[in-house]
Design a protein that fits this description.
mainly alpha; globular
């Protein structure tokens, strides 16, 4: 996708779509606020950029041509999301504790199926201007991720303290749905 406007719209729409990484950003914003959650944007940025570059330059042709690789990737990502869901479900917040870590967001983003869309369909990695497209992608990512943190912080303030444990439980159930869709689609393929 070489048209800058279409590229920007595609990136914005895909990144804004609720998914596992956005669920974690929302949860962190809701439980510890925007300021303490800001480092998670770097985790998301690193996870996506590494995944996009590796998929696009190393595994892209194999993943595209091998249905078994696509199935294995979906199952692996689904299992990771199930692990994250279980961890969030069991979390007990203690004021200073971050329910979502840098590593959680990095690994979830690294395994996020959206990276396949970016690497194989949206970001023209073979184009000589690929670094410019990656920079644009990164700028949009920081903007969208920040919005998820702010929305989470607003939601967290609206929920009374006695309901605060509901936030990680809801996030866990959301991740469970995403994991089920990934694993289910892999098993049906």
């Amino acid at each position: 996708m070489r048209d800058p406007w279409l590229f920007s719209i595609a990136v914005l729409v895909v990144l804004a779509t609720p998914g596992p990484t956005n669920t974690l950003l929302l949860t962190s914003g809701a439980t510890v606020g925007v300021y303490r959650s800001l480092p998670l944007l770097f985790a998301e940025l690193a996870g996506y950029n590494i995944s996009i570059l590796v998929i696009g330059h190393v595994f892209g042709p194999t993943i595209s041509a091998t249905p078994v690789a696509q199935i294995a990737l979906r199952i692996g990502a689904g299992i990771y999301l199930l692990t994250m869901a279980a961890r969030l479900w069991r979390s007990r917040l203690r004021g200073t504790e971050l329910p979502v870590s840098f590593r959680d967001v990095f690994m979830t983003t690294l395994l996020n199926p959206k990276a396949l869309l970016f690497a194989l369909l949206i970001i023209p990695l073979a184009d000589p201007k690929a670094p410019i497209f990656l920079a644009g992608f990164s700028a949009i990512l920081v903007f969208v991720g920040s919005v998820w943190l702010v929305v989470g912080a607003i939601a967290g303030r609206m929920i009374q303290q006695k309901w605060s444990l509901l936030i990680p439980k809801t996030a866990a159930l959301t991740l469970l749905v995403f994991a089920s869709v990934l694993i289910g689609s892999a098993l049906l393929a």
